[in-house]
Every structure is written in structure tokens, then in C-alpha cells.
Amino acid sequence: MQSYLFQIIYSTVIFIIQYYLYIQEVCFVANISVRVDEKMKKEMERLKQVNWSEVIRVAIKERLNQEKQKNLAKAVLINEKIRKIAPKGYDSTSVIREWRERRSQGPERPT
What we know:
By secondary structure, the protein is mainly alpha-helical. Among the domains are: about 1-30; about 35-80. About 70% of the residues lie in helices and about 0% in strands. The chain has four helices and no strands. The protein has helices spanning about 1-25, 40-45, 50-80, 90-105. The N and C termini lie far apart (about 65 Å).
């Protein structure tokens, strides 16, 4: 009896989660319009097997990724321009060790 009740509760919870995810997917998707000329529209109508929404969605994703890569490349170039070169003889390991020791000691308390 207890196992049967658990199965009912478990399947109900799974159903609710799946339904919630479906609603999230359907209700929170933006809708956009695209204008094409008549000739292109007729050519698209001939190709009924093509999911044009998916084609446009993939093209938009690719373009967004290209723009992100451009921005990343710009950020790298800017970083290279403003980067300071360490002076001769500078030992970064001693600075890192010093800050780690300060951190491990904890905050200083006023007396």
C-alpha cells in the first residue's frame, strides 16, 4: 500500500514538473515578425518541409555568437593596450604569498 501511494505521489510530482516546464517554454518565448518580399514568400511556401522559424532562430543565434566573439576580441585588444608590464626584478610570488598569509590570519581586530 505504501509503495503504491509513493508511486502515485511520485508520478504526480513528475507530471507537475513537466507541465511547469512546458508552460515556461510556451509562455515566456518572445514573438518577432520578419518581412520578406512576395517572391521570397512564394519560394518559402514551396518548401513546406522547412521549419522557417527554426531557420531564423538558428541564424539569430549564430549572429549573436558572432557579435559576442567580436566583443570578446575587442576586450582582449583593450586589455593588451592598457596592461602594465612588471618592472625588472619584480617577484609576484612573494606578493601572492604575503596576501595569502594576511588572508589566513583573518581580519585584524581593533583593541
